[in-house]
């Protein structure tokens, strides 16, 4: 049985996007699964009839517009956007290529803007009006890792995007919050078990935590009435070297 609510999750083909999508489907949401690879989206859907896989390039305005038009045509409204798609691009400021910088900005920042823009337009026009946007930031929105200039800069920018959407959306009953995550266990964090560079120049293994807890946090944020909002939520592995002097 569905709960009558609809959602879009970007980056739904793997990692946190897959975990969040399946949690929303399990909670009764109808979920549009957005991502580059149709086969990966089909794997996330796993035959659930409430899932709508929509291959999407979040950095392409036309592709994003087509995603939200598919949602409007299929369900007539949107209650939740989980702006999750992102890429991790390593490199120091003096060595990072322009192509890698642009790829990070196009996906991590411009992609979130384009999806939020289309979501707010749909949420403003529907009846009843309003909805919620949850942006996936990172603890890199607070402090960088070594050699992560593009990723860190875009995640800091996501915080500004979140605040601006929150302010712009008030008149239309659109709430916007951000979840900042540190070391959820996904394909992206597998290398942490072997050790990653630290601020003091050492290389150390770091702990991770079950990504399901991220999905549970998103479900909590999404489940609030629109007159309440989790503006910022940070969830990390308890023993990761984040709080401290590095």
From TrEMBL:
A Pfam family assignment: adh_short
MF annotations from Gene Ontology: oxidoreductase activity
InterPro entries: NAD(P)-bd_dom_sf, Sc_DH/Rdtase_CS, SDR_fam
Keyword RNA-binding: no
Assigned keywords, A-Z: Oxidoreductase
Superkingdom: Bacteria
Matching CDD domains: SDR_c
Protein's UniProt keywords contain Ribonucleoprotein: no
The family this protein is said to belong to: Belongs to the short-chain dehydrogenases/reductases (SDR) family.
The name this protein goes by in its record: 3-oxoacyl-ACP reductase
Lineage: Bacteria, Bacillati, Actinomycetota, Actinomycetes, Pseudonocardiales
């Amino acid at each position: 049985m569905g709960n009558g609510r609809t959602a879009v999750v970007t980056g739904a083909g793997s990692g946190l996007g897959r975990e969040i999508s399946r949690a929303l489907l399990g909670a009764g949401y109808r979920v549009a699964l957005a991502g580059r690879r149709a086969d990966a989206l089909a794997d996330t859907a796993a035959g659930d009839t409430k899932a709508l896989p929509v291959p999407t390039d979040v950095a392409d305005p036309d592709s994003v517009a087509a995603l939200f038009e598919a949602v409007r045509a299929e369900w007539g409204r949107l209650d939740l956007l989980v702006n999750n798609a992102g890429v991790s691009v390593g490199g120091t400021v003096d060595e990072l290529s322009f192509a890698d910088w642009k790829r990070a900005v196009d996906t991590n920042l411009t992609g979130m803007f384009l999806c939020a823009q289309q979501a707010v337009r749909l949420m403003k026009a529907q009846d009843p009006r309003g909805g919620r946007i949850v942006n996936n930031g990172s603890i890199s929105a607070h402090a960088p890792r070594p050699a992560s200039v593009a990723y860190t800069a875009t995640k800091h920018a996501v915080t500004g995007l979140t605040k601006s959407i929150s302010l712009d959306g008030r008149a239309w009953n659109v709430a916007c919050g951000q979840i900042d995550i540190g070391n959820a266990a996904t394909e992206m964090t597998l290398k942490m078990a072997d050790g990653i560079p630290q601020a003091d120049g050492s290389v150390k293994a770091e702990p991770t935590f079950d990504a399901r807890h991220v999905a549970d946090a998103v479900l909590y944020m999404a489940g609030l009435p629109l007159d309440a909002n989790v503006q910022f939520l940070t969830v990390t592995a308890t023993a990761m070297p984040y709080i401290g002097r590095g």
